[in-house]
Specification:
With 190 residues, the chain is mostly helical. The chain contains ten helices and two strands, in the order ααααββαααααα. A two-stranded antiparallel ribbon has the order 1-2. Strand 1 and strand 2 form a beta hairpin. Helix 1 runs antiparallel to helix 2. The longest helix is centred in the N-terminal third of the chain and has 14 residues.
């Protein structure tokens, strides 16, 4: 199994958004929503409009789901960036049904894109914007975790949000590197 990395550089994240938005809005939504709600790709691909929109189709609600891998219930409040990406995608559609998959494939009547297609989208975009680290579908989740940590959120809270069983797993997700550990030693003067 190849280890994938979070996207640490915020400029590269913005470059990915711009690149993907210039391709297909669905792909931009995949990336933007993915890095903002930290779901595993299998759960992200299964989301329908009914999962994110209020009953009248106007406005967003929290996502309530049972994770496929862990079987644990999640309640995810969509932040402004995720809502913006979803609204742009929704506004671009000629028509939609509440039961339609958000990340809908062009193949078949109502199927989500495949995990492989999501991987291809992310790898192509990463290469196009010059990201050197290994990128995969799990990069979305890892990017969320890394930036939550960099923005000062408690690692225990991040661990719980990601439904990890221990802090060691979360530490690997965060992609903490030796230069960041050195910064901690240098900047924490008690």
């Amino acid at each position: 199994m190849n280890i994938v990395e979070p996207i640490r550089d915020e400029k590269k994240i913005e470059d990915m958004k711009v690149y993907l938005k210039g391709q297909v809005l669905r792909n931009y939504a995949l990336f933007t929503v993915g890095i903002n709600i930290a779901l595993r790709i299998s759960d992200l691909l299964e989301l329908t409009w009914n999962d994110v929109l209020n009953e009248n189709g106007r406005g967003f609600k929290s996502i309530k789901l049972k994770e496929g891998k862990t079987g644990k219930n999640r309640d995810i409040k969509l932040n402004k960036m995720a809502q913006k990406a979803l609204k742009e995608l929704l506004d671009s559609l000629e028509a939609y049904d509440m039961d339609d998959f958000i990340l809908k494939s062009r193949e078949g009547e109502n199927r989500p894109i495949s995990r492989q297609q999501a991987l291809n989208i992310l790898k192509d975009a990463a290469e196009a914007v010059g990201i050197k680290e290994n990128v995969g579908t799990h990069t979305l989740r890892k990017t969320w975790g890394y930036h939550a940590w960099k923005n000062g959120f408690n690692p225990a809270l991040i661990m719980e949000t990601l439904n990890h069983t221990n802090l060691g797993v979360t530490k690997r997700y965060l992609g903490i590197r030796q230069d960041e550990i050195n910064d901690l030693y240098e900047n924490l003067n008690i």
